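Protein entry
_____________
===
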Amino acid sequence: MSILAWAEKPASATDKLVAVPGDNRTPFNDTERLVIALADAMTDTPANVSDDLYARLRKQFSKEQLMQLGAQIAFENYRGRWTRIFNVASDNRLNAR
């Protein structure tokens, strides 16, 4: 496989999962990077979705789609914080404190 063919190959799901915790957004396409930017903005404390980000989102998504994305991001943020009460691990096993 040539270097050019490899460089143009879409990122695998594994590549994306590995990239999520870091700052490397190259495995993601433009739409995915935009959704990650929304999630980052919504989960900041305090949450701050800038006018610029909102304008870029509206070019890509309808208001209904943004409502669904925002609701899902908010739910996952809630769930992630709520499970800390019970020290729930990522594999859903309850850890003893």
